[in-house]
Each structure stands twice: as structure tokens, then as C-alpha cells.
Amino acid sequence: MNILLIMADELSTWGLGCYDSRQKHTPNIDALAAGGILFSAAYTPSPICVPTRAAIACGRYLHEIGYWSSAEAYDGRVPSWGHRLRDAGVETVSIGKLHFRNGTDDTGFDRQVEPIHIPDGIGWVRGLLRRPLASYDATAEMAEMIGPGETDYTRFDRRVAAEAEAWLSDPTRAASTPGAPS
Asked: Would residue 99 show up in a list of annotated catalytic residues for this protein?
């Protein structure tokens, strides 16, 4: 059995052809969706990406796991689906952005390739302040970088895609995975 979970920040159904968006052409994601499971009624557990990633990793609601904000990233304290798969002898590999606390916590992955974790393992503490809400200057910087042309993000995305493609097409990995066809 192989499980491939693709998680993208800031992506909605209107941006993908597999959700009948006639304006968007996303042939690679559409092909993956055609051969897998396409969620028709999925909702985010949080409007904030760091706690959402923790909830998805654990398969539980935020109020059950306690990772409420961008200052409290997943640290492996609550068992994840990665822990369960790994404990059952399944290789678990993460390729790309995790936004977990750091790369040394046991978050259920045998290996992390090109991970991005929250800065300094403590996240955005100022975001916990409610009145007045702290400004998040990094968003202004990121907004200025977005647009046509090459950025650190597009270079990172290309590295992640290349690593994922290499891992998925590695014949030695497939042969050594329990239950994989020989």
C-alpha cells in the first residue's frame, strides 16, 4: 500500500481543474486526483496553517491536541498517522514544507526531505496578542515577492518536486516497501 498526501498552502478548489474549474489547467494534480480520492466536502480545521498541519497530522480537532496558533507547532507529542504507519512497518517520508516545530522532534517520519519548519521552533508568538493584533511584516515582504519570475519559493517548489519525483520513481524503494508489487 502506498499513500501519497499532497498538502498545499493557500489553495482552494477554484484553483484546480479536477474540481471542474474550467479556468485552471492543472494536469498533474488532475491526473493524481483521477487515480485517487478527491474530497468533495473537506474543511480546514483552522484558518491558520500551522495548527491546521498539526490537526491533519494527528487526525484530530485542535481542541483535542492543543496546537492552537502559529506559535504552537506540532512537536510529535500527540501521535500522528505517521507514527502509526511507521510503527506498522511502513516507510514514512515527508518531502517539503511541514511547518512543524523542528526537524529533531519525532513527528512520525522516518525521513524529512527539504523540510521547512517554523523559525527557531517557537513560531509567531506576537500573533497570540489579540488587542491590538500584531502586524505580520513577513506577509508584506512575501506579497512583494509574489508575481511573475523566479523567487526563493519557486526554487524551493522545484527542489521539492524533483525530490518527490526521484523518491516516487526509485525502483529500490518500491521493491523494499512492504506490500509493494515486485
From this structure: yes
pTM of the model: 0.78
Tens of pLDDT, residue by residue over 10-29, are 777 888 889 886 777 889 88
Distance CA 175, CA 157 (A): 27
- Which of 58, 83, 99, 117 does the annotation list as catalytic? 99
CB 21 within 8 A of CB 15: yes
| Beta carbons within 10 angstroms of residue 148's beta carbon | 5
CA–CA distance, 100 with 33 (Å, rounded to integer): 26
Selected catalytic residue, list 25, 49, 83, 117: 49
Question: Which of 33, 3, 35, 36 has the alpha carbon at shortest distance from 19?
Answer: 33
**Cβ neighbours, 10 Å, residue 22:** 6
Residue type, 10: E
